[in-house]
């Protein structure tokens, strides 16, 4: 046994000395990569890599040739199992310099890179993120890397003075969230309250937003309560865009939003894992914990943000108002569309009631798939928010995980996937918010006279979507979407 341990230690040490994956404990910092043995003055085209910035991730760069570089993802802090998210810059480029970057140490084999997904890029002179052309991206088992899966992409630098930035998906940083929440607070909306629910291990804010009308127009009616959380997994940046879409809509002057504020209290925690987001982790917190497996007994010192949110939800569940919805927002690395996970119940009536919200969302959102939505109680998911709270709350409450693809959705009438953008992620968030109106109308909770203006607005928008040809108002699944869903049926959820 001791000999085996010594062999393992030697293996780790050898890997570290050779710059192996075990040595990747930090990001590259303004690393200039030159040909082996080169001792001259640095030239244009000797690329400089950097990931020492917020949400950055790149642990190592190997020079293969003047045109090719192997890139290693830095594992999550204190947890070497997870290597998916990358986010780095390249500068000191030569105009018309063509390169191939190989991301060589993914911890996952299944990936949307098999189905056309591509990294995103921006540069100093073109600051809007855009996806690389699919034809420039290859995902394959590589014999040069122990038959691990490698994602290679080709790129041509065209402006010598630009700094180029590449990322797994559109980044949404902790600082961006803070600026957004600061701007909301500055508007002094009487129906929006921001408070600090707690602090992370590294003393970052855990924000809680409460959105509801301050005055109860009809004191005989008790408002419903909805809780929404996002970014428990830091690399799942689409969740933040969806969450912002929900918030943007709920604080707007749209008649539907005004009606919802009159009848519903929304409690939103936009970033459950601020340290992980800041550090550029994919799945874990600073201390290497997957927080979405610790809902049953979160530690106040090891999982302080989760502990604070759980305390809040337990308190809300005991309130006379009653917590009706809990939705935790994630992103998915192997499936397309938006979809939901729900819980399994013995009572058929409760099963049917639980399906109402995702069915209505399918009607409102052209990128949401009800056929990809599933209800389960896998043992491995017992520590998730959806599973734990589903067992804690009473039988009038419903807990969901909302997933959205890192890559694309199948639009009605389309035979090819439509890549998501920051705007379409936010649009899904707006559609989630709007669906609460349909849900409560379905349950006869909101007065019909309050809905007349809203229905008029809705019908006008449906007509507008119809003219643009991008709506899926009937919620039906297209033939191409069904084919894509059949292809994905064997893939299990990952949240």
Could you describe the 3D structure shown?
There is one protein chain. The protein is elongated, with a radius of gyration of 24 Å. Helix 4 crosses helix 10 (422-442). An eight-stranded mixed sheet has the order 12-13-15-14-16-19-17-18, with helices on both faces. The chain has a six-stranded antiparallel sheet with strand order 1-2-5-11-7-8, with no helix packed on it. The longest helix is centred in the C-terminal third of the chain and has 21 residues, at 422-442. The relative contact order is 0.11. It is of the alpha+beta class. It contains twelve helices and 21 strands. Strand 3 (60-65) and strand 4 form a beta hairpin.
Mean of residue pLDDT values = 85
Terminal Cα span? 36 Å
Q: Would you report the number of β strands?
A: 21
Main β-sheet description: 8 strands, mixed
For the largest beta sheet, what order do the strands appear in spatially?
Answer: 12-13-15-14-16-19-17-18
Judging from the principal axes of the Cα atoms, what is the shape? Answer: elongated
* Residues in helix, %: 25-40%
Rounded radius of gyration (Å): 24 Å
Q: Could you name the ranges where pLDDT drops below 50 across 5 or more consecutive residues?
A: 1-20, 459-493
Strand percentage lies at 15-25%
Class by alpha and beta content: alpha+beta
List keywords for this structure.
495 residues; alpha+beta; eight-stranded mixed β-sheet; six-stranded antiparallel β-sheet; 12 helices; disordered N terminus
């Amino acid at each position: 046994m001791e000999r085996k341990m010594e062999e393992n230690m030697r293996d780790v040490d050898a890997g570290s000395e050779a710059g192996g994956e075990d040595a990747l404990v930090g990001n590259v910092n303004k690393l200039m990569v030159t040909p082996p043995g080169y001792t001259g003055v640095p030239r244009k085209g000797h690329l400089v890599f950097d990931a020492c910035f917020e949400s950055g991730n790149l642990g190592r760069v190997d020079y293969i040739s003047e045109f090719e570089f192997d890139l290693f993802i830095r594992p999550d802090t204190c947890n070497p199992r997870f290597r998916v998210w990358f986010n780095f810059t390249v500068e000191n480029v030569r105009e018309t310099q063509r390169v191939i970057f190989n991301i060589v140490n993914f911890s996952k084999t299944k990936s949307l890179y098999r189905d056309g997904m591509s990294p995103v890029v921006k540069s100093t002179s073109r600051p809007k993120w855009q996806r690389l052309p699919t034809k420039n991206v290859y995902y394959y088992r590589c014999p040069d890397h122990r038959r691990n899966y490698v994602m290679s992409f080709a790129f041509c630098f065209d402006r010598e003075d630009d700094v180029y930035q590449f990322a797994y998906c559109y980044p949404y940083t902790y600082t961006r969230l803070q600026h957004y929440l600061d701007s909301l607070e500055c508007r002094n909306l009487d129906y929006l309250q921001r408070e600090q629910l707690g602090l992370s291990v590294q003393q970052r804010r855990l924000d809680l937003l409460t959105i509801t009308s301050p005055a109860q127009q009809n004191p005989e009616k008790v408002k419903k309560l909805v809780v929404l959380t996002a970014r428990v997994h830091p690399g799942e940046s689409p969740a933040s865009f969806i969450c912002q879409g929900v918030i943007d809509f709920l604080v707007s002057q749209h008649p539907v939003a005004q009606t919802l504020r009159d009848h519903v209290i929304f409690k939103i925690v936009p970033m459950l894992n601020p340290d992980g987001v800041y550090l550029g982790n994919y799945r874990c917190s600073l201390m290497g914990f997957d927080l979405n497996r610790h809902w049953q007994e979160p530690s106040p010192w090891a999982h302080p943000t989760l502990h604070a949110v759980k305390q809040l939800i337990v308190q809300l569940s005991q309130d006379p108002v009653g917590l009706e919805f809990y939705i935790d927002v994630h992103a998915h690395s192997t499936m397309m569309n938006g979809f939901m996970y729900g819980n399994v119940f013995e009572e058929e009536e409760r099963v049917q009631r639980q399906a109402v919200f995702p069915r209505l969302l399918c009607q409102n959102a052209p990128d949401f798939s009800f056929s990809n939505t599933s209800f389960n109680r896998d043992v491995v998911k017992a520590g998730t928010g959806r599973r734990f709270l589903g067992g804690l709350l009473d039988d009038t409450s419903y807990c969901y995980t909302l997933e959205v693809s890192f890559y694309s959705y199948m639009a009605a009438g389309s035979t090819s996937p439509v890549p998501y953008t920051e705007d379409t992620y936010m649009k899904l968030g707006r559609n989630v918010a709007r669906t609460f109106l349909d849900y409560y109308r379905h349950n006869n909770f909101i007065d019909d006279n309050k809905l007349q203006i809203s229905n008029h607005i809705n019908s006008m928008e449906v007509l507008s979507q119809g003219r643009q040809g991008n709506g899926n108002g009937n919620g039906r699944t297209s033939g191409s979407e069904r084919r894509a869903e059949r292809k994905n049926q064997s893939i299990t959820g990952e949240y």
